[in-house]
Write a structure and sequence with these properties.
GO molecular function, one term: DNA binding
Oligomer: single chain
Strand content: 5-15%
Pfam family, one: MerR_1
Helix content: 55-70%
Radius of gyration: 23 Å
Low-confidence stretches: none
Largest sheet: 3 strands, antiparallel
Protein name: DNA-binding transcriptional MerR regulator
Keywords: DNA-binding, Repressor, Transcription, Transcription regulation
InterPro entries: DNA-bd_dom_put_sf, MerR-type_HTH_dom, MerR_fam
Mean pLDDT: 90
Order of helices and strands: EHHEHHHEEEHHEEHHH
Number of helices: 10
Length: about 230
């Protein structure tokens, strides 16, 4: 049986031995054997576990990766595979969303979204439902000055016009690729000024990022399959 020292694996994966120990402490890998002098050593199974963790982390969020590794470690392979499959579904939905809003911008048609005719003014709940986000996110974006609401004269509730909903849709679609508030403000100004070329480029970048994430996720899945076979 081929074995490896922590330093050998750390060097190969370009991580620290502390990182390897942290994965062990988080219960992400099989039990680690020790030498008679109480030094850790790893088998091919452990090596593939570490490779899988590093590969999955490039395409998936940390909590998902850790849960997948724990499920695999405990021989719950089908559950682990369904979990990564669910993430594939989420990225597909995100891609469709970005494409739909991009088409809406390209056609300069902001009267309907997903074949739903938009009202002149919508409550925060209606806007959140259409955009597929939480009302707390909309309140945060308003607090940051990205969007603005009016108030219902009768009850004081927030009301969002179609132009503001359009901004909400853009923010919700690009929040993972436009990281800074000032950059988002500039982008929304382009939207207001009908400078759609710059807005469209941002959406194309979002699609490229999703494509890259998909590739990384698939590579992670390939390593996960190898790991399951090792187990």
């Amino acid at each position: 049986m081929e074995t490896y020292t922590p330093k050998q694996i750390a060097k190969t994966l370009n991580v620290s031995t502390t990182t390897l120990r942290r994965y062990e402490e988080l219960d992400l890998i099989p039990a680690v054997p020790r030498t008679k002098s109480n030094h850790r050593f790893y088998t091919a199974q452990h090596f593939q576990a570490f490779i899988t963790i590093r590969a999955l982390l490039k395409g998936y969020d940390i909590p998902i990766v850790y849960e997948v590794m724990r499920l695999s470690k405990n021989a719950r392979y089908v559950e682990a595979l369904w979990l990564v499959n669910e993430q594939q579904y989420h990225i597909q939905v995100e891609k469709q969303r970005v494409e739909e809003i991009l088409t809406m911008i390209q056609n300069a048609d902001f009267t309907k979204y997903k074949n739903v005719k938009l009202k002149e003014y919508m409550s925060i709940g209606e806007a959140a439902q259409i955009a597929g986000v939480n009302t707390s996110a909309i309140r945060h974006w308003e607090h940051e000055g990205l969007i603005h609401s009016e108030r219902n004269n009768e009850n004081g509730y927030r009301l969002f016009s179609i132009s503001q909903l359009r901004k909400i849709l853009v923010i919700s679609s690009l929040r993972k690729t436009v990281y800074y508030i000032e950059n988002m403000k500039s982008l929304l100004n382009n939207l207001d000024n009908q400078n759609y070329d710059k807005v469209e480029r941002s959406f194309q970048l979002a699609l490229e990022n999703l494509n890259n994430q998909l590739m990384l996720q698939m590579k992670g899945i390939a390593e996960l399959i190898k790991y399951i076979r090792e187990l």
